[in-house]
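Support case: uridine-diphosphate-N-acetylglucosamine complex. Customer-provided input:
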Amino acid sequence: MSKLLIQGPSRLKGEIRVHGAKNSTLPLMAASLLCDSTCVLHNCPILSDVKTSEKILQHLGCRTGRSGSDVLIDPRGVEQSDIPEHLMREMRSSIVFLGAILSRMGRAELSFPGGCELGPRPIDLHLSALRKMGVTIQEDHGCLKCSAPEGLKGVQIAFSFPSVGATENVLLAACCAGGTTTITNAAREPEICDLADFLNCCGAKISGAGDSTIVIEGVKSLHGCEHEVIPDRIAAATYLAATAATGGSIILNHVVPEHLAPVLPLFEESGCRFAIHEKEIYMSAPSRLGRIKNVRTMPYPGFPTDAQAPMMAMAAVANGTSIFVENIFESRYKHVGELLRLGANIKVEGRVAVVEGVGRLSGAPVEAADLRGGAALVVAGLAAQGETLVSGVRHIDRGYECLEENLCLLGAQVKRLPD
Ligand code: UD1
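Agent response - structure generated as follows:
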């Protein structure tokens, strides 16, 4: 397993282009299954989760190819309707293929995604919505056998929580269903809008994406299209956190500033200054950050849970006490124990973490247990005095393209040590 060796501290300074959003790319790749001709996705990041999605598509019978950041998917040869267990295990979010496979094949077989590093991740909302749409689901020894013998039908779906994945699955299942589907309390994340934009470009009739009520009128078929994946707002927030933690300055290119609206005010609160111009954000941080009073993770347009850990690494070196409340996932503080090794002062009680900023972190060996928690360790390592050796880098590679190259461009000293 490769490791990242960080020699800190360094003050990040420079300009980088933010890659395409992982959390958009995966559902978009699943969506290509609904089309009767080739799709081209531009701005697809090179990440292990994207590679896993390609393997799933190939297993199902798609032809796929990549040229730079363009991924081409030809779904005409699809004849399988199952996802092998090892691919389901590699990526919990492969559950988003369920709605697409069902729509295309009328049946689907995959293993239960089960729990993962963020605690239990049930899929009850996905399954109850699909059942309502006419899907029969047998749960058998960790395997889900799904079929829609009479086809998928449009219905009213009211989510008790605006789940991102469940909203995506229903969108995928409903596009070519018979009749109209209405989702209330739908997720409103930018990735939902990106998926709806892609599907509409393929001939779907979806209105209301980005609001909490989405209406999908079923159509007979969808055709392929070309689509540009939105920029990754979480990668952008991570680079901002790394820059802030090191007292540096950065220009982020190719971002949608509006998607970062839930996080930018917290950087401002800690003393960072911004200039925003179209697709570009300039941020400069003070040499010592002020505290961020409260960070409460919420569904969009609230503060994203995925930015909680990188932001906590930044709060760990701020002047004063910051309070974090994690409302989305049950077990999303695994990075805290590792931040303590670097000298941070953080106490966790249930969903609340109290971060007393310290004047200086000191480098140490740490281990990433999950993607965003791993990114937080990199942020902290950049601010820490001396050497930080981050292991478990495979988690980080799921979500950040060319992380060490980008950080080096910004003046950091980061090296990947091979196995
Ligand atoms: C997506 C993102 C992930 C992000 C999360 C919340 C992708 C690939 N992943 O994950 O990075 O952290 O949104 O913004 O896009 N829940 C249930 N039952 C369900 C579904 C969800 O109880 O059927 C719960 C989950 O356990 C969790 C919460 O709802 O506590 C949020 O989950 P959800 O919005 O579905 O997140 P994901 O789609 O898994």
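The pocket of uridine-diphosphate-N-acetylglucosamine is lined by residues 23, 26, 93, 121-126, 161, 163-166, 191, 304-306, 328-329 (CB under 6 Å).

Case will auto-close in a few days if no follow-up is received.
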